[in-house]
Specification:
The protein is mostly beta strands. The model has no long low-confidence stretch (mean pLDDT 87). It has one domain (28-47, 57-156, 163-168): Fimbrial-type adhesion domain (Immunoglobulin-like), CATH 2.60.40. The protein has one helix at residues 2-16, and strands spanning 36-37, 64-75, 81-85, 98-99, 108-114, 128-129, 138-148, 164-168. The strands form two sheets. A five-stranded antiparallel sheet has the order 1-2-7-5-4, with no helix packed on it. This is Major type 1 subunit fimbrin (Pilin). InterPro entries: Adhesion_dom_fimbrial, Adhesion_dom_fimbrial_sf, Adhesion_dom_sf, Bact_Fimbrial_Adh_Pro.
Length: 170
C-alpha cells in the first residue's frame, strides 16, 4: 500500500516538472450570422453535371475538358461571408483537385475554377470575400472541369464532391 502511495505521489510530482515553451490559447465566437444558399439553409447539396467527353480529348497529362459553370446564390445574409473550399481527404495533395471516387474514369480528377477561370487549389483555398448587394445577396460562381492527372485517361464514370464553407469575419 505504501509503495502505491509513493508511486502515485512521484507520478503527480513529475507532471509539475514539465516545462512548456509556448502557451496557445484559442479564442473565438460562434455567431448566428448566415446566408441562405440557393434558397435553402445550409447544408445545401449542389449537383454539377459535367458534360460527357471523350477519353481521347486528354492527349497529355494536365489536359482539361468539359468545363461547366455553377452558381452559389447567397440570400438573406446577415453579414458578408468569405466562401472557402475545405481540404478534404479526397483532394489530391499534388494537384489540389478532387479525386474521382468512382471505379471508372481512371486518371481523371475534377478541377475547380473561380469565376475568372483561375484554378482553385482545394488544399489551400484562401477564400473569396463576398460583397453583398443592397438586398443582402450575392452570387458566387465557379466552374468544374475534368483534369487528366496522368495518362491514359480511361472511359468511365466520374463522381466526387467538395465542401464549401461560409465564414463571417468581425
Amino acid at each position: 500500500m505504501k509503495k502505491l502511495l509513493v508511486a502515485a505521489l512521484m507520478s503527480a510530482a513529475s507532471v509539475g516538472a514539465y516545462a512548456a515553451d509556448v502557451k496557445v490559447t484559442f479564442d473565438g465566437e460562434v455567431v448566428d450570422e448566415t446566408c441562405k444558399i440557393n434558397g435553402a439553409d445550409p447544408l445545401v447539396d449542389v449537383l454539377v453535371t459535367l458534360p460527357k467527353v471523350s477519353a481521347t480529348s486528354f492527349s497529355e497529362a494536365s489536359r482539361v475538358s468539359g468545363a461547366k459553370k455553377f452558381d452559389l446564390k447567397l440570400t438573406d445574409c446577415t453579414a458578408a461571408p468569405t466562401v472557402r473550399w475545405e481540404p478534404l481527404p479526397n483532394v489530391d495533395l499534388t494537384t489540389g483537385n478532387l479525386k474521382n471516387l468512382s471505379a471508372g474514369g481512371s486518371n481523371v480528377q475534377v478541377q475547380v475554377l473561380d469565376i475568372d477561370q483561375r484554378v482553385v487549389d482545394l488544399n489551400d483555398d484562401t477564400g473569396y470575400k463576398v460583397t453583398l448587394d443592397a438586398n443582402n445577396a450575392a452570387t458566387v460562381s465557379y466552374y468544374g472541369q475534368y483534369y487528366a492527372n496522368t495518362l491514359p485517361a480511361t472511359a468511365g464514370l466520374v463522381n466526387t464532391y467538395g465542401f464549401v464553407t461560409l465564414t463571417y469575419d468581425n
